[in-house]
Amino acid sequence: MRPEELKAGGMERGGEAATESVAIAAEAGRVSASAERAETGAVLPKTLLPGATVGVLGGGQLGRMMALAGSAMGYRFVALDPAPDAPCGQVTPQITAAYNDRDAARELARRSDVITYEFENVDAGVAALLAEESYVPQGSALLYTTQHRLREKAAIEAAGVPVAPYRKVGSLAELEAAAAELGLPCVLKTATGGYDGKGQAVIRRPEELAAAFRQVAPGAQAPELVLEKFIAFQCEISVIAARSASGEVKSFPPAENIHVDNILHLSIVPARVPEEIQRRACELAEQIVSGMNAVGLLAVEMFVTENGELFVNELAPRPHNSGHYTMDACITSQFEQHVRAICNLPLGDTSLLTPVVMVNVLGQHLEGAIQAACSADEAANKLGVSPKLHIYGKTESKTGRKMGHINLLCKDTGDGLSWVEQTNLWRN
Ligand code: AMP
Questions:
Q1: Of 155, 184, 227, 340, which one has the fewest beta carbons inside 10 Å?
Q2: Considering the domain 21-146, what is its CATH architecture?
Q3: Whose CA is nearest to atom 19 of ligand 1?
Q4: Contact indicator for 192, 150 with CB cutoff of 8 Å
Q5: Chain-wide mean pLDDT for the chain?
Q6: Where are the alpha helices (DSSP H) in 318-357?
Q7: Which residues line ligand 1 (CB under 6 A)?
Q8: Cα(226)–Cα(387) distance, rounded to whole angstroms?
């Protein structure tokens, strides 16, 4: 979860609609962008063919990769981002303005047939304005849910999917009571605003409770916190599921994710868990995306325990870093799938074409990774690994900042992992 700026709300999301309006972007002509609504107020799904323009709120790497995939299909894109040389703006027209600039949002609506977002901290007023003036098939209900851990957990449970046992906590006394009920170890998290392991603390002994409370909720008058049972997981996996505006659902094969300092380092596919667990993980992700009537992609992060239980940790309603492997290793990439889902095309085949290891390229790896992937590579030849380089075009390279990734196509994921080991770039 990333920092919440404002809670989105007040917009009706597109639900199961009885009728479907088909808007065809003939000869790349503009179609009417404002949403048609059922009597209930629910947004009716529209089918948008290549030639239509997709407006993207946010111009980072996710928008860029979405635009590259969608442009290949003949869609046009326009992004809104405050940074003049944003990764997405390098490949599509860009409106350069703050995310909460109403006039800029209005311009985005005017220039787009359908609007999507590449991050979840969408300003509530802008979300409402875009829904009013354009067509936003994803709605804002899913954003509203996933911006808050308690709402998110309740929604996952309502879809019949397990999460780690948890309690809502608002004071030290409540924390003590919750810890007594759940038993230690536990993880204390802020309900909003935490991401990449920030805003959370693992509590192993009762005497750590007060310090954890002070650390996670420093100075807050009425903090909204969640205490979760610590799950001694065997590994972490994620499944990217997609649901189209008219309700078709598909999921990609689970990725096994390895984090270093709370930042995703590797995604390994197929995940090294039994096939039965992989199947179950896909079923759960599809159950959530259907249960929430989501439109577009939903990334579902899960813990796998030693005895094969699955607990959902968190959701992201957008393309996800752990789905970047699909760009080279699946018949359809997550980015193409997202465009298909919001434009209401049939969803693409998610089959895996080859085992793959995705390794993230952070600022400190950038130079070496480009060197390794762009010169004669004896290790890759010996191991039978094909490194596919993706660099996002960010102007400033910083330690810990995601600058790109490499998809290592291989016969066996062990070979991809050996390449990462031998390339010796990821040790710092
Ligand atoms: P999150 O911000 O919820 O994604 O958590 C960041 C990381 O902390 C996860 O990827 C896990 O490695 C770890 N973590 C979070 N919650 C738990 C939990 N309930 N039990 C064990 N580890 C956890």
A1: 184
A2: 3-Layer(aba) Sandwich (3.40)
A3: 230
A4: no
A5: 90
A6: 326-329, 334-343
A7: 164, 187, 194, 197, 228, 230-231, 236, 259, 262, 313-314
A8: 41
Q: Which residues make beta-bridge pairs with 187?
A: 202, 228
Angle in degrees, CA 138, 142, 147, rounded to 5: 130
According to DSSP, the residues that pair with 303 across neighbouring strands are 236, 311
Q: Helices (H), strands (E): how many in the chain?
A: 13, 19
Written out in words, the top-level CATH class of the domain with range 165-229 is alpha beta
* C-alpha span between 287 and 315 (Å, rounded): 13
Q: What is the DSSP letter of 31?
A: -
Q: Which two tokens stand for residue 386?
A: 């094909």
The arithmetic mean of pLDDT across residues 371-382, rounded, is 91
Which among 187, 227, 311 is the best mutation to test ligand 1's pocket, defined by most ligand atoms within 8 Å of the CB? Answer: 187
The reply to whether domains 165-229 and 233-423 share a CATH topology is: no
The distance of Cα 2 from the centroid of its chain, to the nearest Å, equals: 10
The CATH number assigned to the domain with range 233-423 reads 3.30.470.20
Q: Where are the domains of the chain?
A: 21-146, 165-229, 233-423
pLDDT of 43-78, one tens digit each? Answer: 788 999 999 999 999 999 999 999 999 999 999 999
The C-alpha atoms of residue 125 and residue 101 are separated, in whole angstroms, by 10
* Tens digit of each residue's pLDDT (9 = 90 or more) over 296-355: 999 999 999 999 999 999 999 999 999 999 999 999 999 999 999 999 999 999 999 999
Query: Per residue in 233-278, pLDDT tens?
Result: 999 999 999 999 999 999 999 999 999 999 999 999 999 999 999 9
